[in-house]
Amino acid sequence: QVYVVESGGGSVQAGGSLRLSCVASGYTYSNAYIGWFRQPPGNEREGVAAIYRYGNVKYYADSVKGRFTISQDNAKNTVYLQMNSLKPEDTAMYYCAVALHPASWLLSSEYNYWGQGTQVTVSS
Q: Helix, strand, or coil here: 89?
């Protein structure tokens, strides 16, 4: 069984930083995609960043480019999302997910396994 667990959320002021962690275990596909999504209150879930584990290829939504960095530690089965220069509009529940063969890293429907989420709140 695949387990996905996020951590690292919290409350910060605008301009601050947080680092989210995602531990995904129970799968053996080295070519999996690990994605971070977020869902602001009253809005749809949107893709933030993703990493293709085999080639360490990284993808970012335009809204976070230059501010967020996704990385992985294969030895720990952990993917990180370093979030800098946070803005109030970054406030959302952040989810980590695993996709085995996504048509697009942005499509949440392509992801097979999801964590429970971790809340990020950015105050102005």
A: helix
